[in-house]
Amino acid sequence: MTRTLKLALLTAVATLCLAAAAPQAHAQISVGINLGPEPGCPYGYYDYAPYNCSPYGYYGPEWFDSGVFIGAGPWHHGRQYFYGHVNNRLDPNHGYHGQLPARGEAPGNHNEQFRGNELRDGAGHTHGDTRHH
């Protein structure tokens, strides 16, 4: 065997050994949706895209902690297994056509009694028809 052939054979064997010993890289696919910051709405926002501001009276008092909305949908930061009352008559998906507040709008003074008719969790799942006055 010639010196050149021996060198080529040793190089091939060394390359195979290094390739076998090298850790394998596994492809990773990550899908994420960056929704940005929580919508700044005076009375909360609906728990579904496009996360429009909800009107006063849509969410019951349990959705607020010291007057601050605890969030809904991807920004929910309430306790685990949270359920709160909403008034779905003020939801466009239930036929509401009234005015909605703008993002960043300051809350007004309202003295109306809350009239909830649906129990929801922070992720937008309905948990029965309840009456909360």
Protein architecture, described:
This protein is largely without helices or strands and 133 residues long. The protein has a domain at 41-133. 14% of the residues lie in helices and 8% in strands. The chain has 1 helix and 4 strands, in the order αββββ. It has one helix at 3-21, and strands spanning 64-65, 68-69, 84-86, 118-120. The strands form 2 sheets. Strands 1-2 form a two-stranded antiparallel sheet. Strands 3-4 form a two-stranded antiparallel ribbon. It is elongated, with a radius of gyration of 29 Å. The protein starts with a helix and ends in a 13-residue tail after the last strand.
Brief digest:
The chain is mostly loops. It has one helix spanning 3-21, and strands at 64-65, 68-69, 84-86, 118-120. Mean pLDDT is 81; it is low at 25-32.
Strand content: 5-15%
Name the helicity range.
10-25%
Counting DSSP H or I runs of 4 or more residues, the number of helices is 1
Q: What is the number of E strands?
A: 4
Distance between the termini: 96 Å
Would you tell me the overall average pLDDT? 81
C-alpha Rg (nearest Å): 29 Å
Low-confidence stretches: 25-32
Question: For the report, how would you describe the main beta sheet?
Answer: 2 strands, antiparallel
Strand arrangement within the widest β-sheet reads 1-2
Q: Report the order of strands and helices.
A: HEEEE
Globally, the shape reads: elongated
Structural class, from secondary structure content?
A: little secondary structure
